[in-house]
Structures
1.
Amino acid sequence: MLSYISGRFVSLILTTLAASVIVFLLMQVLPGDPAAVMLGINAQPETLAALQKQLGLDAPLWSRYLTWISGFVVGDFGVSYTYSVPISELLGPRILVTLPLAVLAMSISVILAIPLGVIAASKRGKAFDVAGMGVAQVGVAIPNFWLGLLLILLFALQLGWFPASGFGGWEDGLWKGLRSLILPAVALALPLAAILARVTRSAVIETLGEDFIRTARAKGLTRSHALWKHAVPNALIPVVTIIGLQFSFLLAGTIIIENVFNLPGVGRLIFQSIAQRDLITVQSLVTLLAASVITVNFLVDLAYGFLDPRLSTGGH
C-alpha cells in the first residue's frame, strides 16, 4: 500500500509541474503586453521599458518561470498587475466564496444522484427508472448558466426566496452566506447529478449481475439487503471516478456561475483578470485550480486503494 501511495504522490508532483509549465507558456504566447495595457497606447518607450523591468517582464523566459514557480510552491503567487497587491491577498476572501460553493454543489449532486441511480437500477425498466433517467438526460443537456438564469427568475424574482445576485457574507451568520450560495450551487449541481445518477445506475446494474450477488440471494438474502449491503459498495469505484472528474468541471463551471450570480469568488477574479490583461494573476489562479484538480484525482486514486485493495497490490 505504501508503494502505491508513493507512486501516486510522485505522479501528483510531476503532473502539477507539467501543468504549471503549460499554463506559463500559454500566458507567454498570448498577444499583448501587460505593461503596455497598464500604461495605455500613448506610453513613452522609456516608461514602458521601465515598467517591464519593474514587473520582471524583461528577464529570460526560463528565469521568469523559475522565479514564479519557486514562489508559488511556498504560497507567494506574485503581485497583481492590476491591483498592485499580492495575489494571495486577493485570493483569500474569494476562496471563502468559491470553496463553500463547490462543496455545497458537490454535496447536493451526490445526495441527489446516488439514491436516484441506485433506486433506478433496482427498478430497471419500470416507470421510476424510465422517468428518472429521462429527467437525468434532460439535466445532462442543460447548460448550468442557463439553469442558473431560470433559477433566478423563479426563486429570486418570482418567489423571492433567495437573492438574485451578490454574496451576503459570513460575518452576519452562516445562513446569510449559504442563502446567497444555494441557487448557484443548485445550478452547478443538477447537471453533475444527472451524469452521476446515470453512472451509478449503470454500475449498480452491472454489479447486480455478478455471481456473488446471485449467490447471496440464493443463501436467503433479501433483494434490498443484497442491493444496499453488497451491490452498492462494490459499484462505488466507477462512481468515485466520476465524482473526481466532476470536480474539475465544477471548478470550471464556477467561472461562469459566479459571473451569472455576481459572486466575488475565484472564478469571477479569473474572469476579471483576463479582461484586464492581468496575466500573472490568471497564471497563478489557473495553476492553482489545476493543482486542486490533480490533488482531487490523487485522493480518488487513494480511495481506489481502500475500496479495492487489489489495485494497491498490483491485482494480486
2.
Amino acid sequence: MKIVVTSIFVSDQDRALQFYSEKLGFVKKEDVPVGEYRWITLVSPDEQNGTELLLEPNNHPAAKEYQTKIFADGIPAAMFGVEDIHTEYKRLLENGVKFTMEPTQMGDLTIAVFDDTCGNLIQIVQK
C-alpha cells in the first residue's frame, strides 16, 4: 500500500492552483470539473508520478472550522521536504511567499513555515 493522493483544504481553488504552481513550483497533474468544483491535483516537478496533492474545496462547515482552527493555533496543514531549506526559503521569499517562521533548527531537522494565502500554514523541512 502507498499514498497516492493527499488533500489540503483551500478557500479558493483558482488562487491555490496559482500559488502552488507559480510560487511553489508544483506541476498541475489533474484539473477535472466535479460539479461546481474541480478535482485539481499537483505533483512535485521531480516526482511527476509520485504522490499527488489535491486542492480540496473547504465548502463543508467542518472543513472550514478545522482549517480556521489549526491556522489560528499555528499548526501547519502539510509538510513538504526540501534538500536545502535556506536556498528554498530565499527562493520562496523572492517569489513573494510570506513566512510565519524563518528556518529554525529543531533537533536533526530544520523547519520553516509559510502562509499559502488559501487558509493554511505550510511547513517545509530539511532532514
